User: Fold this.
Amino acid sequence: MQSYGTVILAGIAAGFINRWILLRYDYRHYPTYPHGHVTHLALGFIAASLGAVAIPAIAEPDYVAVTFLTLAAQQFREIRDMERKTLSSLEENKLITRGHDYIEGIARVFEVRNYLVILTSLVTSGAAHLWGWPFALAVGPLMIYGTTQVMSGLTVGEIASIEPAEVSFDGALLKVADVPMMNVGFKATREKILSEALAVLIHPFDDEGRLTLQSPGQRMAIIHDVTSILGAKVDISEMELAPMARMHADKGYLAMFIVANEPDMDVLIEMIKRVPVLESARSTTLKSYWGRKAAD
Amino acid sequence: MEISLKEYILAIITQDASLVQGCGCPVFVARESEEQQRLTLMLARILGGNVHDLENGVFIICKH
Assistant:
């Protein structure tokens, strides 16, 4: 039997390191700005402490303390709200927006990560309490690895294949392969698009993928992630070259074009593959009874 | 919160006024093609909209 001090310390250490690892800087412009970083690390520390003291509280036994813990856990619900508010207010001044679906997804991830931290510190302190601190050294990293794997989720590359496509004009109508995109009035703009645009077709592997890609929120997420890396030749009031994604309603694939600052097709395809499939856009309806009936 | 007219024709630029009728937005009649292009460019920049070509000599400006 370990002293409670060691047990709690093991839990806090594992939880805090877990939060730190989950809070890595991200190419998708997650709100991990320096001050946001400190906020989340502080909250992660609190979450880790909550998880760490739970086992000693039960062992003591001090059940009142345990009920207080559940009360404290409620605070983490506000994290979702906090992230949502921050991102939504930043959204107003963005040229290429993330979209509310993506914001909701990010906010949810931030909330859930704190619960994962609580779980990690709970299990680690439990291991330290039952078997001694050397076991905590093994269980902690295992839990941290587990939580990073559990929360990785699906990406667009896993539900669809992406291939380069040709941009063409039918009169004033811009087309990517056979998908009509938009009407471009200016000749100069048309020529710019013909010479500089990158276009891809995103073929979903199955009907579920098609439904997912049909969601406007998912398309905005794809466009946002791609633009955050490649850039887009747009400015305030000059949105003619804004990237766009349209679906071929009959054939079910998505066409996308972008006039990028860094025109690199390989990077474009790689970026699209890495875009997370949003929970709110992800379709599983076809797995239901009536969904299967409709799909056959 | 920014408020603006979207998905609405903000201006029509044509050389032949008879092609446009009964509209609720300004119609600019240009004398020749170059002037029409110039007018369209000016209006697009001023209104912050996109230019669309109806392919019958009529251009519209629309914000999306």
In short: DSSP finds one helix and four strands in chain B. Chain B has a mean pLDDT of 89. Residues 33-47 of chain B form the longest helix (15 residues). Chain B has one domain: 9-62.
